[in-house]
From TrEMBL:
Protein name per Swiss-Prot or TrEMBL: MerR family transcriptional regulator
Domain of life from the UniProt record: Bacteria
Source organism of this protein record: Domibacillus iocasae
Keywords annotated in UniProt: DNA-binding, Repressor, Transcription, Transcription regulation
Family annotation (Pfam families): MerR_1
């Protein structure tokens, strides 16, 4: 993902009404997911919730899991694991590339 795509996906500029239209979720459902600590919108100076496109994707994923009967607690637990899994994947790929191209890791032990 390029820096431009990253900033575009993470910039919180979308209001809850638009998010509701994009996702098909009610504003109440979106607020509920926030209460359950599954989504973390920013707030404007007037208190308006602001979401990113990444948040919209997360909400769609949450809604799909909820339809499949997954509870919010279980979703939150899985969300906590994702950063660790991503870090592990990157580390494994880096190791594979280093091994493939004969790059030695000069880290102190």
């Amino acid at each position: 993902m390029t820096e431009e795509e990253k900033s575009y996906k993470t910039k919180k500029v979308i209001t809850i009404g638009i998010v509701s239209e994009l996702t098909g979720l009610s504003e109440r459902q979106i607020r509920y997911y926030e209460e359950r600590q599954l989504i973390f919108p920013d707030r404007s100076q007037r208190g308006t919730r602001k979401y990113s496109f990444g948040d919209v994707e997360t909400l769609m994923d949450i809604a799909n899991q909820m339809e499949d009967g997954v509870r919010t607690f279980e979703i939150r637990q899985e969300m906590k694991k994702k950063p660790d899994e991503e870090k592990l994947k990157r580390s494994m790929i880096k190791g594979q590339l280093n091994a493939r191209f004969g790059i030695q890791n000069n880290m102190k032990r």
